[in-house]
Amino acid sequence: METILVLTHVDEGGSALTKASLEAVTAGVELAKQHTAKLTIGLLGFASVEAANSAAGAVAATGARLLAVSGEAFAQPRYATDAAGCEALCRAAQASIVLAPGSSRFVRVAAGVAHRLGGFIDTHITSLSSNDSVDATRWFYRQRVEAVVSRDARPWFLLLDAGTHAAYAGAAGAASVETIAVDLPATRTTVEGLRSPMRGAQTIRPDARLLFVAGAGWTKKQPDGQIHVSEAGELILAFLRLSGASLGSSKSLADQKAEGEQSVLPFLTHMNQIGQTGSTPRHAKGLSTCCHGEEPHVVGWRFIGERRAISLDANCGWTRGKADVVYVADAFQVMARVNALLEARSA
Ligand SMILES: Cc1cc2nc3c(=O)[nH]c(=O)nc-3n(C[C@H](O)[C@H](O)[C@H](O)COP(=O)(O)OP(=O)(O)OC[C@H]3O[C@@H](n4cnc5c(N)ncnc54)[C@H](O)[C@@H]3O)c2cc1C
Q1: Residue 128: which region, alpha, beta or left (left: phi > 0; alpha: psi -120 to 50)?
Q2: pTM of the complete model
């Protein structure tokens, strides 16, 4: 019989579990139900036992055994302490299946922890199902081939992609957390703070409902024969501020900055690029603006629920079956109007 451990960690605020952690809890609860297996939830990263106890209330309704590794040494992500903490949680739970969110914090240590336990790891898991065994699904070749993986090796670590499960939302309750002692390893790394890779506002928001994509058209000559890059930047940033959307980019737009040939949108980097050589984010909705919708770009939209596009070109790729709704219109005008409406609503 399987014993399932869900590894979770604290969010940046230091007092609650991350949304991706709660998604992993949902996956663990479902899998445990299918296998009538014992479920344990491990909490990592809380500065004190009290903080871990209070955060654990959010998952108390699962009825799972709750384990925590806490203390100042674990309050900051760091390989040595995170790996030691996760290892201690896995050993205490005696888990055969370990589920964890594919967050930067756990991606960094999970393979090392699996190795310490003589286990095996698979990453980018999008769904789990069971027959007699546990089957894990993931995509290969830029999301073009979907595979179902099962393994005999145990413990089997599975890192789940964010956005693939609903965040656990059981009634909050009083939690009884067992504290797991860890022999602290020698540490060479002191965490001094966080530095964002973005200049200015953080524009990549994986948890946003909407993906807003900017294409190269924003920097092209407009019907008046002029380019309006600073106006484009203001419109895009205002929309992100008002809507809370995440910002994506086409390759053509992101490349312009890299080549430094003309003044382009300074808040965009290749981190924003969506597509075959970019990312494939998950959002409920997507709005493409000033982008042609070519296949190498649109392949990055695979996991966007509802797709809309604004393009001047009535023959663009979006109109050829790649979007649910296409507005053949000037994005400068449309977004100025949308921003005004959002501004009025928020006033
Ligand atoms: C191997 C390979 C990998 C690639 N990987 C990627 C990738 O990962 N991601 C990616 O994006 N691309 C990728 N590409 C490039 C891709 O093929 C396209 O060249 C790119 O997506 C085009 O970007 P764009 O649509 O923003 O620019 P353009 O093709 O220049 O289109 C700009 C659009 O803006 C419209 N427009 C202009 N002004 C306005 C306005 N005022 N209002 C509304 N619309 C307006 C124009 O009508 C036009 O349709 C790849 C290509 C190759 C060969």
Answers
A1: beta
A2: 0.81
